Amino acid sequence: MNAIVAPSSSRRVLSTTLHHLDLNSSTCTAATIPAGNSDLGTYLDELLYEISAKPQHRAYQLSSGTTEFATSLGGFYQAQDLATTGTEALAERLLRIELQTDAKYGHLNPTGTHIRKGSFLQYMYQENSRYHYLGVKVDHHAFIDEQDLRKRIGLGQTQKLFKACRVTFDVNGAPEETLVFDTNTRPSVYWWRDFWELKELRSDRHNTETAIRGVIKCLNAIKKTAPTDYTHLRNAAITAFKQAGALDFTVFVDGIFTNYQPVEQSLAQSLPKVVEKIRQLPTTSKFDVQFTLVPEAVPFRRMNVAVSEEISLSYNEDVANLDDKIWSSKTRDGRDVVVIRATEAADRFKFKPWT
Q: What ranges make up the beta strands (E) of the chain?
């Protein structure tokens, strides 16, 4: 059993195992982890810390209590020394699943392979009196050895590409929470469904609707004090959610809100608090950080704005570059006007030169 001191004073690694997976030779090889202050020990320690701090994850649950992984977890919790339990069987299972996946999808990649050579690490650790199991597949990288200037393959020290699964046990040793991490935007299906035999805890439809409802609710705080900014940010958020594909909520928040420059100057002071509230939504509103968007689940369709007692303006809620199509201005004599860039209906209204 190899204990490694973790960066967090409340985290204690109980044991670690490491297996190298080579798809070319179809081999799974156990590696010895040196005791003491080694470079490998430091790498494992940093990797555990990095995954634990990573906000991008998705919640899953065991598909059955009788799967190979589910039954292994009981042994892991009881022994807490992975070297004496079935970690090698899981590593060999991962190799089989990766070989099957590569045979099925490898032709879709220009390199002829779908899955990269890598290492499979397994941890048991304790944090704040709770016990956790963590399984991590880390892709290998090519590098030039500075000693002999030869190309070698190994674990990347700085840019780590990994997939991970963390199970948290309750006080009775039963799996309580299962989270999957992936440096890809969308968790690989072979990883969570085929290998770990998990099922999604929340549907993509639930994640899409719950997330965008939460974002709009947070933005309502600026609706009266900064109406121009509210309109812009609301439309940008809804437009993002009505696209097809995978969404990483952290990337979404950073892209739309973090560096936004408010039109209303007073918003510069209050917007960071709103953004932080939005950033916490996956926890407070219970949806996943990573999921595939379901555009039809977005409940916002059209925006209606009363521009006078007699006239209302209506537009779709996902207008790209809204500010270039509808904007406000003033005439030379000081009257407030809303300008609509009309490509089809301009001839239905009387033309007046700008005065």
A: 11-22, 27-31, 58-62, 118-127, 130-144, 151-155, 162-169, 175-182, 198-200, 246-248, 290-292, 302-306, 312-316, 326-330, 336-340
Q: Which residues of the chain have pLDDT under 70?
A: 1-9, 34-41, 55, 106-116, 140-161, 355
Looking at the whole model, is its pTM more than 0.70? yes
Q: What per-residue confidence (pLDDT) applies to 48?
A: 77
Three-class DSSP category at 7: coil
Please tell me the predicted confidence (pLDDT) of residue 343: 82
| R_g of the chain computed on alpha carbons | 26
Q: Which residue carries 């009775």 as its tokens?
A: 172
pLDDT at residue number 4: 37
Sequence-distant (≥ 6) Cβ neighbours of residue 96 within 8 angstroms: none
d(C-alpha 174, C-alpha 176), whole Å = 6
Handedness of CA 233, 239, 242, 244 (dihedral sign): negative
Asked if 140 and 153 count as a contact pair (C-beta separation under 8 A), the reply is yes
Task: In whole angstroms, give the CA distance from residue 101 to residue 120.
Answer: 17
Residue with tokens 């807490």: 80
Are residues 195 and 93 in contact, defined by beta-carbon separation less than 8 angstroms?
yes
Report the Cα 212 to chain-centroid distance in Å: 16
CB 229 within 8 A of CB 267: yes
The number of residues making up the chain comes to: 355
